[in-house]
Input
Amino acid sequence: MRLLLIEDDPQLQANLAAQLTQEKYSVDIASDGEDGLFQATEHNYDAAIIDVGLPKLDGISVIKAIRAKQIAFPILVLTARDHWQDKVSGLEAGADDYLTKPFHPEELSARLNALIRRSVGNASPIIENGPLKLNTASQQVFINNTVVNLSGSEYKLIEYFMHHIDEVLSKTTLTEHIYDQDFDLDSNVIEVFIRRLRKKLDPDNTLKIIETHRGQGYRLKRYES
Output
């Protein structure tokens, strides 16, 4: 999942970026509202974390501008503890949730995870599709209730597929949502990870979980319960 973090405090920005990267998110960073708004409109994100007190363009204005452009990714707004008006203003501007500073890293992770799940219609942290199960909280993947050991990049890929079951996803779409803006979009690395996932999830090639749609991309097929 690819995130946009707009935070001007250097220490908090670095801490959040490190935490989210460790949690297998790809993170793009902006230190002011103008740059954050530019990135929000130029790239595809699965969610954004936006501080209210930003230089050049405040966070509330950034959120309003994002929503005015019909960009619908979930937004978690960061506010000061004693500024309850910022919470109200953020939600009215189009934010989906708020977090007051200081906060525990675990709470940020839980709220962000919930926002992303709900944005694609998954209320539970556990997503099941036939023999395949993914726990977004523990970041574990199971086939027939057996844990499958995946690399960070492999997990990112299958997680995105599980949030978009039965959709044909192009290599460009997968790359944009899994890697940050510095990644080489012309790379064939997605093909490599698809092959690895197929080998790990379906070594006997009996389930045929991930389909190739020539010239279009890949589809994680839906299993009817």
About this structure: The two ends are 27 Å apart (CA to CA).
